[in-house]
What does this fold into?
Amino acid sequence: MGRLFGVGVGPGDPELMTLKARRVLASCSVIAYFAARRSRGNGFTVVEGLVEDHHDLLRLTYPVTTEPVDRATYERSIAAFYDCSAESIATHLEAGRDVAVVCEGDPFFYGSYMYIHQRLADRFPAEVIPGVTSVSAAAAAAGRPLVSMNETLTVLPGVLPPDELKEALAGVDAAVVMKVGRRLRAIRDAAAACGLGDGAVYVERASCAEERVLPLADTEGIEAPYFSLVLIPGTGITTR
It folds into this structure.
């Protein structure tokens, strides 16, 4: 029986992969990766330089990448995709091949691998290799500590309805808003409504060559990719 590995490959810069992630990738027979249609896959672009002749590649292509108006239809479609993907991986595991499922960032932090783990970890030996998250990379790119002292950090998905997002941001010490994409304007408006707009930072493609860092207030007209985020740093870093 093969072993299943969920391998966090970090936010985009291959040099931010852990030594363990590199070792596991080198040892596995199969590298599986998620990708949108007409895309090479964010995780795969990080590890592409590590692919060797002994590796078999298993592409797992999302049927959809954004939630339509009919959320129930989206959830059925994406659940069926993860069912099918898990069985494709299981075929290799049953044949005795170790499979590394690469996941940008960390597998258990908004990572697609978690849905494969949910379906297969009770059937096969499974291990998760943590990775550097986009949150850490974005804070480093912005040069802004997120939290200090006794502050708390709130992590929110940008796909929340605007009123829910405003309610969630009200009163936070510090926050990160993930999955920005087409919700950038709503996120900017919500931060401004809560008095958080001036200190907020927009970070796109953290750690990559195309990295972009801007004050959130200066993002009018920007078409944000899905994997951009917004940082709302705390203010407690005053101790010397």
